[in-house]
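quick one before i forget lol
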Amino acid sequence: MSLMTLLPFIVLIGAMFLMTRSAKKKQQAAAQMRDHMTPGTGVRTIGGMYATVKEIGDDTVTLEVAPGVHAIYAKNAIGAVLEDAEYNRIVHGIDDEPQSDTPVVPDDASSLTEAPKTDLTKDEAEAPKLDLGKKDETPQDEAPKGDEPKDGKADGEAGAK
């Protein structure tokens, strides 16, 4: 047999070896992470639920999913063991980091301009009229002359302009 016919099989076996090796490393890292769980630790399950560890068994873990509500899960269902600060930030909205004195910059410039604020709850009659620069062609004191339209045609008359 030639080397060219065996080469695809050799590459395939090598790729399978590398994939199983990386999968084993991930499994070992996950098992090591689960071994660091202690009662009171915040965790996230693989389903995305956040809970607090209450008891740890050989293959199971008892989680407090709400105050006074306990559920038993398989250890393999724990997706991540969280640090206290991260768990409190996500679950309770408590931020342990001190707030900086840096001012918050708005996403747009609307808060930087001094535009008059209008009350949207008022009726239109009470709302101020905006002048858009368009002037009336006819003064208010003077009515249009006659009942004729501007184009000189009566209603219903057809014709080209």
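fyi Residues 3-35 form the longest helix (33 residues).
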